[in-house]
Amino acid sequence: MTTRTLFIGMDGATFTVLDQLTNDLPGVGVVMPFLSEFLRNGVRAKLRSTPNPLTPPAWVSLMTGRTPGHHGVFDFIRAEEKGGDVFFTLYDARDIRTETIWSLASRQGKTIAALNFPFTAPPPRDVDGSVVPGFIPWKHLRRNTHPQDLYDQIKQGVADFDPKELAWDFDREAQSLEDLSDEDRENWVRYHLPREMQWFRIARYLLETKQPDLMAVMFDGVDKLQHQAWRFLDPALFSDHPTPYEQRMRDLCFEYFRKLDGYIKELVTLVGPEAQVFMASDHGFTATTEVIRINAYLKQKGYLEWRAVGQSEAEQRRDATMFANLDWDKTLAYCRTPSSNGITIRVARTPGETGIAPAQYETFRDQLIRDLEQLTDPASGERIITEIHKREDVFPGVAMSDAPDLLMVLRDRGFVSIKNIEPVVEPRPEPAGTHHPDGIFIAGGQGINQGREIGTRNIVDVGATLLYSLGLAVPEDLEGQVPEESFTEAWLSAHPVRIGPPTHSVGGNEAGAEDMSEEEKEKLMEQLQMLGYME
Amino acid sequence: MSIPYTQIEDSVVQIVEDMVQDWDLEVEDSVGPHTTLVADLGFSSIDIIHFTVAIEDHFSRPKLGFNELLMVNGKYVDDLSIAQIAAFLDQKLNTPAKQVS
Questions:
Q1: 20 to 30 Å CA-CA from A331: which of A20, A157, A309, A534?
Q2: CA end-to-end distance (rounded Å), chain B
Q3: Cβ contact (<8 Å) for A94 and B45?
Q4: Number of CB atoms found within 10 A of residue A451's CB
């Protein structure tokens, strides 16, 4: 048995950065020489992310070939209204309402390995292969690794295996609450160098010992690093006359990508020329230059009321969590989390509930849209929120009712703030990294065209492509399509794309993780803040 | 079908032991009914989230309503013992759904 399909995910990877690093930079050389050669011999395309280009919905779309309106994962955090309060819960693998490619491949006789993908914990039982989940603290890796004995196999078989280096270190991330100091930012980048090496070593170990039909590994340091160090990587932002610190940070970022290039080279070499190799990101990256305090704006417009915050430690801590801390009896529309970039309208389903009457929904929402359109730059008159989408337009599907009623796209593509601070619009002291909808798709290996750039593909196409590469039919209900222009005519002639029976139904989790305590919410927000989703 | 209390308690102990085996804890006694999650085992809030998910996963019951155990009179409890958790599960797992508030 040999691995026929290798997938390398790079969270947040963008050609804005990779095109620099795969070309000769004056005084630096080619930072990623292997990827440079791979691109020359393969196919590349921009990859359009989910409507809100965010890690949870985007990776789940990639893993299912379905859009968020069907798979049901919209954010890191899910909210439920209970007894006049709004409770926040964490999404996990049980919330995914559609079948994953891991399950699809397994039940058709293929073995898989999935490393560091979000929402693969708790591990699915129907997977034939290896799963080491991402976004899980080291203390919980063992229980969430599949099969049960894999963790010990990795401990024994992978040299210098260290779960503390590998997994999310919540304590470390909680240390930084506001903007990072120069020193902390430098340490943040250094922190990801050994992490990626750990994931690489596990991938190499599984390739050497198990040779799964589909080997998939995701390197998420790209995203983490770019959030904090975007201005050192974006060619449009980096100074022609950098300070020693700026130069050191740029060199450190290059070191990260140089090592990543080495990992990619070794993995591609291991699967050999007979295999097909695909790389993709869940979204791209760009610069955000201003803070938009959307709930402060909605307050001005009369849609919500802040909760009065007393002097007690508990109340102060609650307010500092930066979850929407509102008077729920007087709130009709609000933004739940910064990463959602969405507005939720409260609809009274029963008498006595706070919210608008169902019959008023369309009228209310249209007025809300007009009010959001009126948020403009006083200097230029330009709209701050350039796109406002109704959820039925961007999240159609069985899970649409869990989506925010409106999805906003800001003019700089940043994530909103939900803090109770004025002014509503404020420039950032310096540009920060944020998500762009255009990620990357790269293909190479047997049967792949050489040196070709194809038109923009959609993130749901990746799941379909991986199934096709495994020799499997693409289920008829997958929204993703195989990018046939990536493959040679000879390959397509010998391996025509087949459309097969629909995916199996999945028991969705209506409860999800348990309600979170204030402390838990606080912890999570600290992490999201580190990633740049928070002001 | 009813699950005996002792079986529930054994399962909780097993989940806890499995969870903490790599945590480098210096615990004098083995995990038992009187073991507490925070004081004895150093659970953080995120550990408790994963613990509740592990229990729900073990019993194949995704909606056990752990907030009823974790919160008393509107405030989160400081700590929980294995026995308290087992008693909560006994009530949830062995009471017909329509009788559970």
A1: A534
A2: 19
A3: no
A4: 10
Cβ neighbour number for residue A413 with a 10 Å cutoff: 18
Test B47 with A140 for CB contact under 8 angstroms.
yes
Subunit contact A514:B21, Cβ cutoff 8 A: no
CA distance B3 to chain A (A): 22
Which one of A119, A155, A515 makes the best mutation probe of the B interface by having the most chain B beta carbons within 10 Å? A515
Do strands A43-48 and A438-445 pair parallel, antiparallel, or not at all (unpaired)?
Answer: antiparallel
Domains, chain A:
288-429 (3.30.1360)
Tell me, rounded to whole angstroms, the distance of Cα A513 from its chain centroid.
Answer: 19
Q: Which of A167-176, A351-360, A367-376, A425-434 tops mean pLDDT?
A: A367-376
Q: Do A517 and B70 touch (CB under 8 A)?
A: yes
pTM: 0.89
Confidence class for position A375, pLDDT limits 50, 70, 90 = very high
Query: What is the C-alpha to C-alpha distance for residues A93 and A350, in angstroms, rounded to an integer?
Result: 32
Residue indicated by tokens 């492509």: A465
High-pLDDT (> 70) share of chain B, %: 87
**Alpha helices, DSSP H, located in A2-87:** 15-21, 33-40, 55-64, 68-71
Beta bridge partners of A435: A285
Region A121-143: mean pLDDT is 91
Q: Is the pLDDT of residue A519 over 90?
A: no
CA angle A122, A123, A128 (to 5 degrees): 170
Of the candidates A181, A207, A319, which has an alpha carbon nearest to the alpha carbon of residue A263?
A207
pLDDT value of position A180: 74
* pLDDT at residue A30, as a whole number: 98
For chain B, which domains are there?
5-24+31-99 (1.10.1200)
CB A47 within 8 A of CB A256: no
The whole-angstrom separation of Cα A38 and Cα A264 is: 10
DSSP string over B11-73: HHHHHHHHHHTTS----SSPP-TT-BTTTTT---HHHHHHHHHHHHHHTT-S---THHHHEET
Average pLDDT on B80-95 reads: 92
Complex ipTM above 0.95?
Answer: no
